[in-house]
């Protein structure tokens, strides 16, 4: 395990496929989803990498892609949303609406409860739940029946019901297959990002965990601020031939 931005700077001598999570990676965790604005400099660093054209950049988020786009701008940035269920130019699976409604009806009330119905998944947030109740609330949520063919995800003060199959691991592998001449790099901070870390490690990709906590990633940076520094560094790095861009 390496730590810090310096150890990762030289990677950009090769063309990279940079796949970024959003919450906790490009934006500090905030009290509500609406308040999770990008880290200072993140929008500019994303734009610089896209403009440079040497590296490929993708965002892979649990959010609907439109929310991420609203935060980041950059209309040309490809965004895969909903943990790999939503792909640019492809229709969303619509057969899950009734299951999501049933799941929402089964979620017990608790202080600070917030349901986020994303159409094909359901997130149950408990960030606004008092700390002394959060452990019990999490345990109750994790005991809810999970429909056949669905998976319960654990995240930062959130649990999420999602159809099985698509996940950040399968999504990052699809992105990597579509860019065989680029070294895949995945940067993320949360439990769902571990799915991407696991599969990328198996194919020689670079895996970077943001923040503390156990991880399968091989590298670590401390914060979204470090992620911005890293993206800037890569945007300005010389290529193997010693040229910029
Ligand atoms: O895959 P990501 O881009 O990291 O998205 C994961 C979830 O992020 C959001 O929730 C988390 O961030 C919120 C804002 O910082 C925070 O309030 C919440 O407690 C976190 O769980 C988003 O609301 C979810 O839809 C995403 O799945």
TrEMBL record:
<dbReference type="GO" id="GO:0046872">
    <property type="term" value="F:metal ion binding"/>
</dbReference>
<dbReference type="InterPro" id="IPR006379">
    <property type="entry name" value="HAD-SF_hydro_IIB"/>
</dbReference>
<dbReference type="Pfam" id="PF02358">
    <property type="entry name" value="Trehalose_PPase"/>
</dbReference>
<protein>
    <recommendedName>
        <fullName>Trehalose 6-phosphate phosphatase</fullName>
        <ecNumber>3.1.3.12</ecNumber>
    </recommendedName>
</protein>
<keyword id="KW-0460">Magnesium</keyword>
<dbReference type="GO" id="GO:0005992">
    <property type="term" value="P:trehalose biosynthetic process"/>
</dbReference>
<keyword id="KW-0378">Hydrolase</keyword>
<dbReference type="GO" id="GO:0004805">
    <property type="term" value="F:trehalose-phosphatase activity"/>
</dbReference>
<comment type="pathway">
    <text>Glycan biosynthesis; trehalose biosynthesis.</text>
</comment>
<comment type="function">
    <text>Removes the phosphate from trehalose 6-phosphate to produce free trehalose.</text>
</comment>
<dbReference type="InterPro" id="IPR023214">
    <property type="entry name" value="HAD_sf"/>
</dbReference>
<dbReference type="InterPro" id="IPR003337">
    <property type="entry name" value="Trehalose_PPase"/>
</dbReference>
<keyword id="KW-0479">Metal-binding</keyword>
<dbReference type="InterPro" id="IPR036412">
    <property type="entry name" value="HAD-like_sf"/>
</dbReference>
<comment type="similarity">
    <text>Belongs to the trehalose phosphatase family.</text>
</comment>
<dbReference type="InterPro" id="IPR044651">
    <property type="entry name" value="OTSB-like"/>
</dbReference>
């Amino acid at each position: 395990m390496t730590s810090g931005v310096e150890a990762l700077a030289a990677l950009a001598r090769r063309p990279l496929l940079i796949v970024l999570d959003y919450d906790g990676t490009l934006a500090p965790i905030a009290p509500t989803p609406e308040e999770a604005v990008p880290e200072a400099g993140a929008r500019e660093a994303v734009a610089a990498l896209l403009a440079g054209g040497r590296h490929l950049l993708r965002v892979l988020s649990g959010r609907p892609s439109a929310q991420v786009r609203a935060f980041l701008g950059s209309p040309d940035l490809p965004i895969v949303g909903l943990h790999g269920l939503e792909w640019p130019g492809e229709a969303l699976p619509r057969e899950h609406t009734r299951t999501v409604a049933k799941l929402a009806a089964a979620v017990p009330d608790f202080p600070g409860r917030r349901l986020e119905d994303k159409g094909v998944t359901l997130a149950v947030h408990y960030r606004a739940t008092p700390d002394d109740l959060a452990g019990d609330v999490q345990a109750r949520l994790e005991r809810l029946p999970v429909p056949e063919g669905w998976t319960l995800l654990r995240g930062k003060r959130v649990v999420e019901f999602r159809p099985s199959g698509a996940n950040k691991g399968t999504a990052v592998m699809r992105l990597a297959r579509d860019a065989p001449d680029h070294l895949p790099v995945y940067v993320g901070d949360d439990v769902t990002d571990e799915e991407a870390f696991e599969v990328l490690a198996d194919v020689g990709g670079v895996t970077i965990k943001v923040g503390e906590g156990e991880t399968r990633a091989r590298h670590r940076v401390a914060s979204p601020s470090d992620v911005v520094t890293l993206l800037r560094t890569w945007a300005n790095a010389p290529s193997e031939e010693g040229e910029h861009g």
